Amino acid sequence: MCEFSYTIKDEIGIHARPAGMLVQIAKDAKSDVSMECRGKSADLKKIFSLMALSVKCNDTVTVKVNGEDEKEVSERINKYLTENL
């Protein structure tokens, strides 16, 4: 399992457009992908699950990827978060 934490810097937090991109990255994965924030967990392959986390600016999220392509998927999500949020 790969796991990393990231603090959201975007003023709006995770809103619809970046949430959609994160879900697309997760859906392309063979691995299970989840995100945790403030004690709640979401399946990153489901947009409503991710949006229900209500991730705001300065929230720290933990992404967990478990499966056969976990390293590659973890790197893609980390890169996306760093460049966009």
Number of helices: 3
Strand portion: 25-35%
**C-alpha geometry:** globular
Strand order of the largest sheet: 1-4-2-3
| DSSP summary, beta strand count | 4
Describe the SSE topology:
Elements: E1 2-7, H1 16-27, E2 32-37, E3 40-43, H2 47-51, E4 60-66, H3 70-84
Antiparallel strand pairs: 1-4, 2-3, 2-4
Task: Give the key terms.
4-stranded antiparallel sheet; alpha+beta; 85 residues; 3 helices
Describe the fold and architecture.
With 85 residues, the chain is an alpha+beta fold. It has one domain: 2-Layer Sandwich (Histidine-containing Protein, Chain: A), CATH 3.30.1340. 38% of the residues lie in helices and 27% in strands. The protein contains 3 helices and 4 strands. The protein has helices spanning 16-27, 47-51, 70-84, and strands at residues 2-7, 32-37, 40-43, 60-66. The chain has a 4-stranded antiparallel sheet. The radius of gyration is 11 Å and the shape is globular. The model has no long low-confidence stretch (mean pLDDT 94).
